[in-house]
Amino acid sequence: MRAILFDMDGVLYNSEDPIAGATETLAWARQRGIPYLFLTNTTSRPRRALVEKLERFGIPASEDDILTPCSAAATWLKAHLDGPVALFVRPAARVEFDGLKILPEEAEQGAAAVVVGDLGDHWDYRTLNRAFRLLHSNPRSILVALGMTRFWQAADGLRLDAGPFIAALEFATGRSAVVLGKPARDFYEAAVDKLKLPAGEIVMVGDDVETDIAGAQGAGLKTVLVKTGKFRPADLNAPVQADAVLDSVAELPRWWETVGRE
């Protein structure tokens, strides 16, 4: 093993609360010279806000250290699309799409692509129906999913993520989304390319057995499941099993040193 991908929410912190030992684990990786990146399905805020959040927890980072569905989608859209984009992301995340032609928020037709992320409490029937109308009015429009995470662990409990809303739009329109986030293989391969190492020499550390563990294994990475965030005991009986299960990211250095000597 030569490099690490860290999921963020549920692994390094729960909402606004740091997970014990996360800061020390990142310090250990830096001291050992182990390359790492942060790989997150967060679409509610731009990378610069995530950098500030990590720094509040004592974890130095730059925007270039973080891969998000928004940044991946913006790159993909600029390379593959010629036309207006309808964004269903929170206002703070719209900065990641600078340089693209964005439709007005009230528009119900004219989109070459409809980009859907986690809107949280901003979801309502009118908003979901507007996304449907944009797709239905143009059979060639592309539904872009900023990840397919089903739910996440918030301070007040589990909350729906973008995946269920994407699934509703897929069902209503009869078309499949282009997924630019976990668990899509392309998203993991973008991280592998950035690290410039073989996938089999990289470990993904996550709390979601589907998007983190199954997704990473599909791209050829090793995996570590941590029992924090959205982890539930039933995950240990899931069809996909991680290479290791740890109580938290705080145990990663000891596990790494043990496995590395075998």
Strand content: 15-25%
State the distance separating the first and last CA atoms: 11 Å
Average pLDDT taken over every residue: 94
- Main CATH class of the largest domain: Alpha Beta
Structure description:
The protein has 262 residues and is of the alpha/beta class. The protein has two domains: 3-41 and 187-260, Rossmann fold (3-Layer(aba) Sandwich), CATH 3.40.50; 70-179, HAD superfamily/HAD-like (Rossmann fold, 3-Layer(aba) Sandwich), CATH 3.40.50. 33% of the residues lie in helices and 19% in strands. The protein is built from eight helices and 14 strands. The protein has helices spanning 22-32, 47-56, 69-80, 125-136, 163-173, 185-195, 209-218, 252-260; strands at residues 3-6, 13-14, 17-18, 36-39, 66-67, 85-88, 113-116, 142-145, 151-154, 157-160, 178-179, 202-206, 222-226, 244-246. The longest helix is centred in the N-terminal third of the chain and has 12 residues, at 69-80. The termini are close together.
Give me the secondary-structure topology.
Layout: E1 3-6, E2 13-14, E3 17-18, H1 22-32, E4 36-39, H2 47-56, E5 66-67, H3 69-80, E6 85-88, E7 113-116, H4 125-136, E8 142-145, E9 151-154, E10 157-160, H5 163-173, E11 178-179, H6 185-195, E12 202-206, H7 209-218, E13 222-226, E14 244-246, H8 252-260
Parallel strand pairs: 1-4, 1-12, 4-5, 6-7, 7-8, 8-11, 12-13, 13-14
Antiparallel strand pairs: 2-3, 9-10
